[in-house]
Specification:
The complex is a heterodimer of chains A (321) and B (319). By secondary structure, chain A is of the alpha/beta class. Chain A is built from 13 helices and 13 strands. The chains are: A alpha/beta (321), B alpha/beta (319). Chain A: InterPro entries: AAA+_ATPase (IPR003593), ABC_Ni/Peptide_Import (IPR050388), ABC_transporter-like_ATP-bd (IPR003439), ABC_transporter-like_CS (IPR017871), Oligopep_ABC_C (IPR013563), P-loop_NTPase (IPR027417).
């Protein structure tokens, strides 16, 4: 039984200007202990897909439809509201881009982490503190005793993100969902945090979903990859295949536009234009406005995800032919 | 070659109160955010200023603009020392140097249309009549790729990349010689990042703009700048032509920045070892005295033409 099963997921939000179609017909699975990167730019639907899986979207404005939405075997579509927190807490932990916003500024790190332990396990307060301290050591926190008695504002961004990871892992989740965990960090700290997440995934055997706009991040951390654009899956493959032989024109253009790959002062290959309007997504391929290979057919016809070999699927009319 | 902008021995100290009770007995502790920084930006060239948060790189940019007063040092813009000019005297020189920031959302007035934003410098400098202002604003928006319908829109209607273009159009209004770009692409998506970097390429080539490009990402500066200045804890630790930094970095801090660039090939994934502050301090190269030739900065050794590195002088050693 896979850890995550999402089938034909669509999410839309009602707004004063109409229905915003954030996610359109997305399917993906993650087996236990595997790692998956979801890559896309702002508004591509990468975060919303996972929020929908965890049922964390506001019920007033968000409409979630799917043929299957399962987390560790639990049907999240029919799971009663009062059981959701328990399922999430046992199975999944989330870390976000801005660790400062995830901590309460009024409480010490020790209080916030022990609170998490006490909420999930039947242990004494001193036992909980012991677990927190050993987890801080495990995430290679410098000077963990001092960190325990510090307030969030007294720590650097990198230290806070380590504390966040400690908090996420202390409940021994089956899956860690990291949403742009290093975007706000310096490059040297980013490299350290990514290595740490990779190490912990290997050690604990948990599943990992890394949501990011940065192909450099996934190149370093995950095995499988989903490239999203305009709320749809454009390409689904292994990270090795994506970097070696990307098939979708969007994936190709994304890889080519990464700066600093070659020596010398030169212009970069850019992707002209901008992402489609989610209020009125095009009938055809969402990338056709910006695609070099697009023709009249691409404007009208929505490409479906087509398999090429066991580990590679692409949604592009030009790749089929 | 003439320098469009020269920063000579810039220093900036901030003071923090420490100890004591209330008004009495507390003493001020100096924190030197920028320590003896000298950078020359030749005409039509792009210089990258690289370092992590807290390295002092943005403070240098703000001091160059005189948005922050240096504690010591001089700012020479097109041959004129502007360090001590009063705000009235400074105004004509300000037109020659402009700045853009990372967060274009907070630097654009939400109540103004795009053409009003771009034309505002003409209002401040009392140039042109309204009709000409509007025409010139449209021209500028055209240059940054926001022609036609965009002039009457408001900032909130734009994407991040488009807003950064408006900031650039606004900065170009007075035809500056120098542009200071403080992390202008850090908040942008990869595909849009390339658009903004290419726009800066064009502006440098076609309008002869000299640019100080401040960034924490070495990979972004590689394809854009002619020289790289690396700052660490307020000081310059290495300065060389771009590829010299990539091929032959000598300072341990520069090397740690290079090591942290993600490898874009999953097959070449490797475990990294990270340098601590102590490692960096211990690995600073020791070089023979003869290489410390720089008059302006006695801590820097010259290891090749135009390649300066912070080093520890060693007497009598041969290179």
């Amino acid at each position: 039984m896979p850890l995550v099963e999402i089938e034909n997921l669509s999410v839309s939000f009602s707004s004063p200007d109409g229905q915003v179609q954030a996610v359109r017909d997305v399917s993906l699975t993650l087996e236990h202990g595997q790692s998956l990167g979801i890559v896309g730019e702002s508004g591509s639907g990468k975060s919303v897909s996972l929020m929908a899986l965890l049922r964390l979207l506001p019920t007033q404005s968000a409409t979630v439809r799917a043929t299957k939405l399962r987390l560790d075997g639990v049907d999240m579509l029919t799971c009663p509201k009062n059981e959701l927190a328990g399922v999430r807490g046992k199975v999944a932990s989330l870390i976000f881009q801005d660790p400062m916003a995830s901590f309460d500024p009024l409480f010490k790190i020790a209080d916030q982490l022990t609170e998490t332990v006490l909420a999930h396990f039947d242990v004494s307060k001193s036992e909980a503190e012991q677990r927190v301290l050993s987890m801080l050591n495990r995430v290679e926190m410098p000077d963990p005793n001092r960190v325990m008695s510090s307030y969030p504002h007294q720590l650097s961004g990198g230290m806070l993100q380590r504390a966040m990871i400690a908090m996420a892992l202390i409940c021994e989740p089956k899956i860690l969902i990291a949403d742009e965990p290093t975007t706000a960090l310096d490059v040297t700290v980013q490299a350290q945090i990514l290595q740490l997440i990779g190490d912990l995934q290997q050690e604990t055997g948990m599943g990992l979903i890394m949501i990011t706009h940065d192909l450099g991040v996934v190149a370093e951390t995950v095995n499988d990859i989903v490239v999203m654009y305009g709320g749809k899956v454009m390409e689904q493959t292994t990270v090795f295949d994506l970097f070696e032989a990307p098939r979708h024109p969007y994936a190709q253009a994304l890889l080519a536009s990464i700066p600093g790959q070659v020596a010398g002062k030169r212009k970069l290959r850019e992707i002209p234009g901008q992402a489609p309007n989610p209020l009125a997504p095009p009938a055809g391929c969402p990338f056709h406005f910006r695609c070099e290979k697009a023709d009249a057919k691409c404007v009208e016809q929505m490409p479906v995800l087509q398999r090429f070999g066991p580990n590679h699927a692409t949604a592009c009319l030009k790749v089929m032919s | 070659m003439n320098n469009a902008l020269e920063l000579r021995g810039l220093n900036k100290s901030f003071y923090k109160k420490q100890g004591g009770l209330g008004l009495f007995g507390s003493n001020l502790v100096e924190h030197r955010a920028v320590d003896d920084v000298s950078i020359k930006i030749p005409e039509r060239k792009i210089v990258g200023l690289v370092g992590e948060s807290g390295s002092g790189k943005s403070t240098v940019g703000l001091m160059a603009m005189r948005l922050l007063e240096p504690s010591d040092g001089a700012i020479i813009l097109n041959g004129t020392d502007i360090t001590k000019l009063s705000s009235d005297e400074l105004k004509p020189h300000r037109a020659q140097m402009q700045i853009i920031f990372q967060d274009s959302y907070s630097s654009l007035n939400p109540m103004m249309t795009l053409w009003e934003i771009v034309a505002e410098p003409f209002v401040i400098h009392k140039m042109h009549d309204t009709k000409t202002r509007r025409a010139k604003a449209n021209e500028l928006l055209e240059i940054v790729g926001l022609g036609g319908m965009f002039a009457n829109r408001y900032p909130h209607e734009l994407s991040g990349g488009q807003r950064q273009r408006v900031s650039i159009a606004h900065a170009l209004a007075l035809k500056p010689k120098v542009l200071i770009a403080d992390e202008p692409t850090s908040a942008l998506d990869v595909s849009v990042k390339a658009q903004v970097i290419n726009l800066l390429h064009d502006l440098s080539d076609e309008m002869g703009l000299s640019i100080l490009f401040i960034s924490h990402e070495l990979s972004v500066v590689r394809s854009l700048v002619d020289e790289i200045v690396v700052m660490h804890r307020g000081r310059i630790v290495e300065h060389a032509e771009t590829e010299q930094i990539f091929q032959n970095a000598q300072h341990p801090y520069t090397q740690s920045l290079l090591d942290s660039i993600p490898v874009l090939n999953p097959k070449l994934r490797k475990r990294r070892s990270f340098r601590s502050q102590e490692d960096i301090a211990a690995e600073i190269p020791k070089l023979p005295l003869a290489q410390f030739t720089s008059q302006s900065n006695p801590k820097m050794a010259q290891i090749a033409h135009g390649h300066l590195v912070e080093a520890i002088p060693m007497e009598g050693a041969s290179s």
